[in-house]
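Appendix B, example 12.
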Amino acid sequence: MVWEIFIGVVIILLALDLGVFNRKAHVISHKEAAKWTALWVGLALAFSGGIYWIYLNGYVDNPLNYTPRTAFSKYIQGYLLELSLSVDNIFVIAVIFRSFSIPQKYQHRVLFWGIIGAIVFRALMIFFGIWLINKIDWITYVFGAFLIYTAYNMAFGGEESEFNPKQSRVFKIVRKIMPVTKGIHGQRLFVKKMGIWAATPLFLALIIIEFTDVLFALDSIPAILAITEDPFIVFSSNIMAILGLRSMYFFLANIIDKFSYLKYSLAVILVYVGIKMIFHHYLKANGLEIPEWLSLSVIVLSLGGGVLYSLYRNKKEESI
């Protein structure tokens, strides 16, 4: 019943977002984006109280026998982790929109449908990941090693050439399947010309955004599974983070370069959860458990340190 209510509330929020608050295409100002970001983050943090209440009253299956306090802590950790890993996603989304010359007033509509697809794909990947962990014991070592490898590339991979969506395989495949218009046709994803349906640049941007989200999920899903394997906590924390991604994009897209040292914070977090996943079986076999406060502290202090140091370096460089 809790699953149905949660999904129903998410659907209602999305319907209100598109059908009421953002029915008309408009340029979302930095101030408006800040308000929406605060709203979504506030809702996500407020839902942590709902998590406590749900597990206190046993309204959802609790396969890992979490206490309400543990469930609360796991949700907060998962939400902060998914939110922080969305930073790279925001940068790529900005590149995609710029590549296809998508006007800012139409970007919200593309991101809305992108969120719908992301929810579906994330749900499938979450439950597949949990199934793998339950069926194949050694898969936790693979996930852990992959997260550490990802962290290494994030911190020491060097400057990569800028991602070009128009050179991607996804773009080329879509162009082969259907015709694509040269110009924008308002908020429409498809138009009919001379009896033939053609995709617009908005549809191409949407498809590539969906594809890149799946690639990012290959990092984020194993990361959150290192924190908890409880299906409802993994799913709810993931979805709450995704719901705030659109407003966060409009809030951070133009200032993301100011937080260049945040990638090192994300690398620290990924190394931590990777090591935690590698030692998962050892800790379980010996009746040991990493304290919840330690995991939460690593995430919060790493993110806070990355943000503060980035701001410090920016201020120092501006004073030179």
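Residues 33 and 138 are 43 Å apart (CA to CA). The first helix runs from residue 2 to 21.
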